Amino acid sequence: MAQSERIIETPDCVAEGADWLAAQCPRMSHAMTLTGPLPLRRKPDGFAELLSAIVSQQVSVASANAIWGRMKAAKLTGPRKILWASDDDLRAVGLSRQKIRYARALAEARIDYNALRAAPSDEVVATLVEVPGIGAWTAEIYAMFSLGRADVFAPGDLALQEAARDLYGLSERPREKDLRAMAEDWSPWRSVAARVLWAYYRLAKDREGIR
To answer: How far apart are CA 115 and CA 136, in angstroms?
Structure first.
């Protein structure tokens, strides 16, 4: 991993990043006066976390939680279990034909999750997006929350785009490439900036954030 990459491990790490952003940007500071302390949002890493992300794609948070609950009850959260299960078994817990294909592709990829912990963030994302069903957004979210990378952002996230539009008074929602460029100003704490924008979005829109 690059020497400059910070790992967010505790709420104090998030608070440090928040203080830095507030000092750099008045609009970020304003958002945080509304949101209050930001969540740590650390998650486990490994196969099950990426499988859960695939389950969450294009469904509501409630639906994703229900499907994932059935998968855990059926003990279908490990790579061997996915490969050994029949399509009927996977359909029974709520996976679509496409998600069954993605789940099997993830199981067959044999990713070295221990190696990812030490890899540079760009390499983490590049490795994960090679798997069918894992796009840049999923890979970036994994780097942020499962690996705790402090300087990763997910500019393709619609909630982040809309929060940036509202907070910065933009005439329209920024496109992914524009928000990626905008986020350069928040380095080396782009993951904390994402937490700010998600929290702000939830307040401004009274909507669910990411699962």
So the answer is: 19
Distance CA 57, CA 41 (A): 19
Using alpha carbons only, what angle is made at residue 68 by residues 134 and 49, rounded to the nearest 5 degrees? Answer: 45
| The residue type at 4 | S
Note whether 11-41+151-205 and 47-146 share their fold: no
**Chain centroid to CA 45:** 12
How many C-beta atoms surround the C-beta of residue 75 within 10 A?
9
Please, which pLDDT band fits residue 1 given cuts at 50, 70 and 90? low
What residue type is 206 in one-letter code?
D
> pLDDT tens digit string along 42-86?
999 999 999 999 999 888 889 999 999 999 999 999 999 999 999
pLDDT at position 122 is 96
Both tokens of 70, joined, read: 């059935």
Amino acid found at 5: E
Arithmetic mean of pLDDT, 78-96: 97
pLDDT of residue 204: 84
Alpha helices by DSSP H, listed for 142-175, are: 158-167
Separation between Cα atoms, residue 3 and residue 136, nearest integer Å: 23
Query: Any idea which architecture 47-146 has in CATH?
Result: Orthogonal Bundle (1.10)
- For the chain, domain boundaries: 11-41+151-205, 47-146
Burial class (CB in 10 A: 0-12, 13-18, 19+), 99: buried
Q: Domain 11-41+151-205 falls in which CATH fold?
A: Endonuclease Iii, domain 2 (1.10.1670)
The SS3 of residue 149 is: strand
